[in-house]
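Sorry to interrupt, but I need a hand with the structure work. I would like you to pick a protein and set down its sequence and fold. Please put the record directly below this note.
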Amino acid sequence: MPLALYWLLNEAANSLHRDALRAQAYTIASFLRPMANGDVTLDIPPEAEPIYSGGYGLYAYAILDSKGKVLFSSRRDDLPLSAVGESLAKDSFSRRRRNGTVLIGVNVPRAIDDRLYWIQVGQDLTHRDVIIDDIVASFFPRVAWITFPILLLLLVIDIVIFRRVLDPVRKASDTAASIGPTSTDVRLSEQSMPTEIVPLVHAVNQALDRLETGYRAQREFTADMAHELRTPLAIMRARVDTMEDAPLRGSLRTDIVNMTRTVNQVLDIAELETFVVDGDSTADLQAVCTDAVAFMAPLAVNSGKTISLTGMETPVWVRGHAEALFRAVRNLIENAIRHTPPGGSVDVDVDAEGIVRVLDEGPGVPLAERETIFKRFWRRDRSRPESRGLGLAIVTRVAAAHDGTITVDDRPQGGSVFTLRLRLA
């Protein structure tokens, strides 16, 4: 704005300068008188001479013939006002003098007795009577500063407008960030959305619909498959129990138990994919661990190992779902029993800060594997039929649903310590 105004004002001032100089050029042209020999003479009235004289010198003039030779001039050096060699066809010119001043002027043609003459009239912008260029020069410091507060106000208004217009987009971004495996039914709102962005939001919602359909089909297939496998496994176990070959019967029974355990874990994972902990649900962590230890005690005894529950003997209330936490602690205990050698012990410790530690006497977990062991179907030894790499994945999913964490460290006296941290209610 200030630059545009300055340019317009400067153009207007230059136009006024050129008009005034052309008027002076026509005046000087009227002073030319033809002579009998075909030349011309310049007859300036005495009352007009002061404005061209060296003492006052508001204007300077030079009269040139068609070849550019100076015939008359108010300058003492009898040189043209424009730069030497500059075309006279240009209607105006500007030249900076050695003393730093700027001389502007015009070229006006005039024909006398079939001869063409050029009248140059110039004006020094530093002359005391030239004030219009001073007005232009003082425009910025005196007037243009007003535009900066206006621009600042417009900037603030633009920010407020854009924030109000884009507020629905910001809310849609927050909604999109909350969409996950447990909230596949959430969609972005198209109301109050800027018209240009509505097609994008609509396309994203349609994509989420397709993803939810595929995700639900996969989850339902996994759950249905696990349910359908339970009955054949139960029938197989009943038939195996009627076999007379004891060694073969025991081997088959072990395989069926491992298959049943894998199917149950797959079903647990399918159920946990959509599991969400209610904000006001609480569970007694000490009671959950007591039930899990009691449930897994027969397995530990049959394996020639001991199991104990230590720590808090009073309720420890945490935010969470008791059944889901029971599955997590049960899988941790089962994992500890599997890796503890015969004669060893498994300890379950309940802390008042909502922490459960399951300690075993197994070989421990190498540092490089402490992240990968919590992934699905990861197994260090794939030749072992009793492990499918799902137990710790279930624990990880339960911990994530409860905004908790599961970590593993070395036990000082040998073995591993799995730590499940939960939020206190």
